[in-house]
Amino acid sequence: MTKPAVFGAALAVGAVLLLSALGAALFVESGLYNIGADDHHTKPVLALIVQLRDRSIESRLSSIEPQLAATPEMIKAGAKYYASLCVGCHLAPTVSKSDLRAGLYPHPPNLAQEDIQESRRAFWIIKHGIKMSAMPAWGKTLDDAAIWDVVAFVRKMPGMPEEDYRQLLQPP
Q1: Residue 41 lies in a domain
Q2: Which residue of 2, 104, 112, 115 is most buried, as measured by CB atoms within 10 A?
């Protein structure tokens, strides 16, 4: 390729990038996209957000050493943290709805019904939270041991009878 051709190609790429940036800036400035939690994302935006979230979390899991055994003490401690911090959004064996959860979008998973397969992923999400989802970063207030307690409980909770859950919350 000759120097003028390379220059022309670089100029064309630069122009496309500049126009794309200008178009994106105009779109943001217009306010056309409704960011309200009571209006769902379009399918392409939701697909992009889900992919971004999943890839972001996945790329950070290798630094986390999984806890291999969940002891009864961890599960009991995790249940108490969960009852005070998580039930309003993620429900529990004794809680099937909440006023807070009704207004959240994206809708948080019902952890009383969903199996949590990957403990490191659950740990990372609890510790770091997820932007623009109402999932707080509990790592600012809980240490890693307490977060592993919550993970231990969340992994045992699906299908847990209400009475078992109530017993976990009883004082020693």
Answers
A1: no
A2: 112
Q: Write the pLDDT tens digit of every residue in 90-119.
A: 999 999 999 999 999 888 999 999 988 899
State the pTM of this model. Answer: 0.84
pLDDT of residue 33: 85
Q: What is the DSSP letter of 109?
A: P
Burial of 119-141, coded b for 16+ CB within 10 Å and e otherwise, reads bbbbbbbbbbebeebbbeebbee
Spans of the chain, pLDDT less than 70: 1
User: Residues 17, 67: one domain?
Assistant: no
Q: Is the residue at 45 inside a domain? A: no
Cα separation of 70 and 25, whole Å?
Answer: 49
User: In CATH, what number is assigned to the domain containing residue 94?
Assistant: 1.10.760.10
Whether residues 81 and 127 fall in one domain: yes
For residue 76, what pLDDT is reported? Answer: 97
* pLDDT score recorded for residue 132: 87
Q: Which of 63, 58, 55, 81 is nearest to 148 (CA)?
A: 81
Whether residue 106 has a cis bond before it, omega within 30° of 0? yes
Domain that holds residue 11: 1-32
Task: Identify whether residues 83 and 6 lie together within a single domain.
Answer: no
